[in-house]
Write a structure and sequence with these properties.
The complex is a heterodimer of chains A (353) and B (261). Chain A is mainly alpha-helical and 353 residues long. Chain A contains 14 helices and two strands. A two-stranded antiparallel sheet of chain A has the order 1-2. Chain B has one domain. In chain B, strands 3, 4, 5, 6, 8, 9, 10, 11, 12 and 14 form a ten-stranded mixed β-sheet that branches. In chain B, strands 1, 2, 7, 13 and 15 form a five-stranded mixed β-sheet that branches. Chain B starts with a helix and ends with a strand. Classes of the chains: A mainly alpha (353), B mainly beta (261). Chains A and B meet through α1, α4, α5 and α7 of A and α1 of B.
């Protein structure tokens, strides 16, 4: 792990050493949001899936990715950015939206997922259809219900702006813009969004304490939730049917989840990727379609309302039993997973134009 | 201290390489000894008739099952090209990804360079893009997703596309057909490597240029391996057994018709 850190730093040094003659360093001391661009693996976490081995992390690349993330130029009518449905203060989900609006107020069918610790994900989207963080941006950009733009147009629009030509040159050495450079810059920004500073994390690092209820809640969590919501990422990233009633979505059909991606595998029907339990305070509403508005509603589902539908996860047959006290303790523990420093991190806020 | 300094020394050269050599392609060190090149030309047919795109002429082709149709798009990936000598040894083109598109004349011919001098008796092609490049993040060049041969919602390249019109007999009216073949894992993978014998030896010498002409007969899409009835199967846009069958058919469409030295 130590050598990985050194590698990142080395890569950055090398970048600047060979570019200094013709490129201005965007990481000026005046921009504190670029002062600390280094990918660190939190202590005792597993190795990430994505480690920038083919996409060296630089301040210029990160800054470009952040600019792209918040720029509606990626959408067909220049109205919707990534940040529209992934707001920093909502841990990069969208506050108070069951589903989100794309261009021309088109309504999607799934709840905008929160974005953090993405470098540990081996698949993306509720159905896991995308297999690589660099491939992720192409889906919302081209989805008719989201940004409804073509990749050819996006590249042409970016290439027509001097600002972007300069930023791509700073990040990748030439003004020529490609979908690969665009998605790699976005991966540099999004992959940097690590949330590992909640009270739970401080407790695990022995930098802080949890109170009696919270500790009791941790015990409840480990016995009743942790198989799917595995520490420290609070998801095992598997696909599971958690027993939600099969109801029609915004399009008037039942969302078959993973079954859309693997239609020849009946066992994938109605399964969705297990979401992380970090930052729940900021990411309501919950579930793949945002049908549950509160954590209490989620707990009600697991204790009282699990439906026996095809491929129901065997761990949930009969629901989860929670006494009133356990429920209260579990809620106290979940509250220790909220990482305020992450949602307020100046590195991840929309840049001022 | 000493350990740290050592680590840094080991890491920096590697970092410099990735940081500063963006423009060079990851080509291996040149083969020792003389090398030449071969031009690959692709020609598309419907049976014995050269393929022409468009629907303004009505239905100009017939499937082996007797369905009348025309073609508005024919494009596919060819990758991992290998040239094979009589003794079985092979030369593999590095970074070998080509998008062949009937609508774009420049895509129908390309050179394979750096071929060690010698006589070659067969060529191997992977139809589609190998699974590795389907799981390795953003690609560029011939593999740029902007080229439209890519599924963004379920990551993977579209290996081949055929689109056109056909006469739907039940209504006696025009209908469109669209076959997009993808899926690189599991039993329905559409990836097929084909080995095509050459009608005569391809002689590659020092700095010489030879050529070979490859034919793809589009009618084979309908009966190369599994019979396809356009009346019942005319839309394929995701991985599955239909795409698998069509890909197998497609793989039988190729032959090498000419070698020039």
């Amino acid at each position: 792990m130590r050598s990985l850190l050194v590698l990142t730093a080395g890569g950055m040094l090398a970048f600047y050493s060979c570019k200094k003659d013709n490129v201005t360093d965007p990481g000026t001391p005046e921009d504190p949001s670029l002062a600390d661009i280094e990918f660190r693996i939190p202590a005792s976490w597993p190795l990430p899936v994505y480690n920038y081995s083919n996409n060296p992390l630089t301040k210029a690349g990160f800054r470009l990715g952040r600019q792209l993330f918040f720029d509606p130029i990626l959408s067909s009518d220049n109205t919707v950015s990534c940040g529209t449905c992934h707001q920093p203060f909502a841990a990069f989900s969208q506050l108070d939206h069951k589903v989100s609006h794309g261009v021309k107020e088109r309504v999607g069918t799934r709840n905008s997922p929160s974005l953090f610790n993405l470098n540990w994900h081996s698949s993306f989207f509720w159905d896991g259809g995308v297999n690589h963080i660099e491939m992720q941006p192409f889906a919302p950009i081209t989805n008719p219900l989201e940004m409804d733009e073509t990749l050819v147009n996006v590249v042409a629009k970016l290439q027509a702006q001097d600002k972007y030509k300069q930023m791509f040159k700073e990040a990748f050495g030439t003004e020529e813009i490609t979908t690969q450079k665009m998605s790699r810059a976005l991966a540099q920004f999004m992959g940097m969004m690590v949330s590992a500073n909640a009270p739970y994390d401080k407790y695990m690092r022995q930098e802080g304490t949890l109170n009696t209820d919270e500790l009791a809640g941790l015990t409840v969590f480990r016995s009743k939730c942790a198989t799917c919501h595995t520490e420290p990422l609070f998801s095992d990233f598997s696909f599971r049917n958690n027993g939600l009633a099969l109801v029609n979505n915004e399009k008037g059909v039942v969302d078959s989840g993973r079954g859309i991606i693997t239609p020849n595998d009946p066992a994938s029907l109605y399964k969705f990727k297990v979401p992380s339990l970090r930052n729940l305070k900021y990411t309501a509403p919950y579930m793949h379609d945002g049908r549950l508005a509160t954590i209490d509603a989620v707990l009600d589902h697991y204790t009282n309302d699990v439906q026996q539908t095809p491929n129901l996860d065997p761990l949930l047959a009969g629901g989860i039993s929670l006494s009133a006290q356990e429920r209260q303790q579990l809620k106290a523990f979940l509250n220790t997973l909220n990482d305020e420093t992450f949602v307020k991190d100046i590195r991840f806020q929309e840049p001022k134009q | 201290m000493r350990f740290k300094a050592l680590l840094f020394a080991a890491v920096i050269p590697a970092a410099v390489l990735t940081g500063c050599s963006k423009d060079s392609k990851n080509e291996p060190v040149a083969e020792p000894g003389p090398a030449g090149k071969a031009a690959f030309h692709f020609e598309h047919y419907a049976g014995n008739t050269p393929l022409s795109l468009g629907n303004s002429q009505g239905y100009v082709y017939n499937t082996p099952q007797g369905d009348q149709f025309n073609v508005t798009m024919y494009k596919y990936y060819v990758s991992n090209i290998k040239l094979v000598k009589a003794d079985g040894s092979e030369y593999a083109e590095p970074e070998s990804y080509h998008l062949v598109n009937q609508a774009e004349a420049s895509s129908l011919s390309f050179d394979v360079a750096g071929i060690p001098a010698g006589s070659y008796t067969a060529v191997k092609l992977l139809l589609g893009v190998d699974s590795t490049r389907n799981v390795s993040g953003a690609q560029t060049g011939a593999l740029d997703p902007a080229l439209g041969m890519f599924w963004a919602w379920s990551t993977g390249y579209i290996m081949a596309k055929v689109e056109g019109d056909f006469l739907k007999t039940s209504t006696n009216a025009n209908a469109v057909f669209s076959f997009h073949l993808g899926g690189f894992t599991g039993k329905n993978s559409v990836l097929n490597e084909i080995t095509l014998p050459l009608p005569q030896e391809l002689a590659v010498g020092d700095n010489t240029s030879s050529s070979l002409t490859l034919k793809s007969d589009l009618l084979k899409w309908f009966n190369g391996f599994a019979p396809i009835d356009l009346q019942t199967l005319n839309q394929v846009g995701s991985a599955g057994v239909e795409a698998f069958d069509l890909a197998r058919n497609f793989s039988y469409s190729f032959s090498v018709t000419k070698v020039q030295n």
